[in-house]
Amino acid sequence: QVLVVESGGGSVQAGGSLRLSCAAPELIFSRFAMGWFRQAPGKEREFVGSISRSASSTDYADSVKGRFTISRDGASNTVYLQMNSVKPEDTAVYYCAASLTNEFHSTPRGIDQYNTWGQGTQVTVSS
Fold this sequence. Notes:
By secondary structure, the chain is mainly beta. 3% of the residues lie in helices and 46% in strands.
């Protein structure tokens, strides 16, 4: 059973923008920090960014800081990843995940700190 569902992936030219969405059940969305990860072909899955349960704190990988923004909407139980000024190296399958922590202001980075994963959505950036 897939509890977290990503959408919004696709193809975009370098310098363009894309917004990914992640829908989760209210029981998960309201209780845990949420994160985005990505995995490029032949590479390990890596942290992109996270947002705290309270939405008051965010954290980003250095490679996307200043270009990507994470937000969450309690009305729709959805987490968003706004991707601006994308680069070919952003090409990957992007995964949304719910963390193990229910601390209000925590923004975990480690893959092992997340236990509920979506199936991923492909993002392809052409030069």
